[in-house]
Design a protein that fits this description.
about 200 residues; 7-stranded antiparallel sheet; 5-stranded antiparallel sheet; globular; disordered N terminus
């Protein structure tokens, strides 16, 4: 299957994955944590769909109930740093999903990111069906987050001219690391920096 076809499938699946436009975030205390965003996306959200979200939701539910994760799954929850990572390995395949957020400069919004990456037995990106980075913008006043397109990253076209990009969300710090791939493996890697409004090179 060509990379161009993968790009088309990505765009279609991305729209399906986040077809819902508004998600209510319930929380206690002064402000929501990464755990509250995870609850909103994977537990409270009745419109959540897609295999990627389903796997993350199962892992999050197991974590909340104190149950063991599925075989091959490592699940990291770092509430202090606002980061969650699902990492599943098996049969020469790896899928990694990350969730984190940034405070915006206006102090009235937060940017929430959900990132999905797939890798083959060599550790090379293989651009799975649900791969890509998706953003929501959380509004402090309404306590809702909505699908967001103006993050500064081009998430609609991950494959172009035989190259595509994957993303690593930060567990510490504010920068996203972008890796450019070809069929021969990783080619370049660079950070995009959060400036309080959007990501810039």
């Amino acid at each position: 299957m060509t990379r161009k076809l993968f790009a088309i499938l990505f765009a279609f699946c991305a729209l399906s994955l986040v077809a819902q436009e508004t998600i209510k975030v319930n929380y206690k205390g002064a402000k929501p944590t990464i755990a509250d965003f995870a609850n909103a996306m994977f537990i409270d959200n009745e419109e959540s769909e897609g295999e990627a979200e389903g796997a993350m939701a199962n892992a999050w539910e197991n974590y909340c109930k104190g149950l063991p994760q599925a075989e091959g799954v490592t699940f990291t929850v770092d509430v202090r740093n606002g980061y969650i990572c699902y990492d599943c390995r098996g049969d020469g395949y790896r899928q990694k999903m990350e969730l984190c957020y940034w405070n915006e400069a206006d102090q009235q919004h937060k940017l929430v990111a959900f990132n999905v990456s797939s890798f083959d037995e060599r550790g090379f990106s293989c651009l799975g069906q649900y791969d890509g980075i998706f953003f929501y913008r959380y509004n402090n006043a309404t306590k809702k987050m909505t699908w967001y397109y103006d993050s500064g990253l081009d998430t609609a076209a991950p494959a172009k001219d035989g190259e595509w990009q994957t993303y690593n969300l930060p567990q510490t710090g504010k920068n996203i690391v972008v890796t450019t791939w070809t069929e021969d493996g990783p080619q370049t890697q660079f950070p995009v920096k959060w400036n309080g409004h959007k990501f810039v090179k």
